[in-house]
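Open question from group meeting: does this chain pack into something compact, or does most of it stay loose? Before anyone orders reagents, we agreed to write out a predicted structure and look at it together. Recording both the input and the output here so the notebook holds the full record.
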Amino acid sequence: MELRHLRYFVAVAAERNFTRAAEKLGIGQPPLSQQIKSLERELGVELFLRTPQGAELTRAGEAFLVEARRVLDDAERAAHVAQRAARGESGQIRIGFTGSAAFNSLVPSLIQRYKQRFADVDLTLDEANTPQLLQGLADDRLDAVFFRPDRDSTLALPGIALHRFPDEPMKIALPSTHPLAARRRLPLAALEREPFVLVAGPAGSTLHDEIVRGCAQAGFSPRLAQPAPQVSSVVNLVAAGLGVSIVPAAIAQVQVKGVRYLDVTGVPMRARLALGWREKDTAATVREFVALARD
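Structure tokens returned:
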């Protein structure tokens, strides 16, 4: 039994006439009659009583009509669901991001636009550091991640595609009680003797490397006085007077009492941001998210 047999049956049941049903279906009347007879043989019951005026449903036909319509409705609904999934309008997407990336306006804006356009997609968010995010992609635990690539964008694992966003400048974060806090801009060399609050190790490897590189260009190596678990914690530790730091400019929107942000002069320092995803990922939800990011 095929769906077309059910459609033929429902059409005849609606018209109570083989000729009119054939015209609506766009087929000949003899082939339609043969298809209905074939269906009746397969079921082992008569569905219609043939009359001079047309065809009337038997008791078996009336019972079969209810189920035939349900099956056709289910088939149409299944096709609609499949088509929406193919267009990326349903399903799920798992997005990862670094703590510092969340402060860049591009990230929440992109997520918001995606949710507005694909409201029925189940979107989940997961915060982690860059190595963990990239491993999450490799392990198929995440579908797309906002991470901090290294200077040559080679940090991503093999098979991971990426889209780079514009770099953002970095700023010096000082306790507001610091003697230099009244300045609007400052050369890195002025921080040579200052204790630093930094995210060290894998958790902040890319930003940490950029800070160390910039300080080296300024002629010194930063002295780590207080490690921070993540970039968003750095600001609070600076406010507590535990040291100075250098953070992405977007962090400056975190107006924590006791912290002043200054522009860096002399040495160009940039915080890089990228969206990564598996190159061979065929999910329509990921395809649409990437397309929106590139728009």
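Observations to bring back to the group:
The chain has three domains: 3-86, 91-166+273-294, 169-270.
The radius of gyration is 32 Å.
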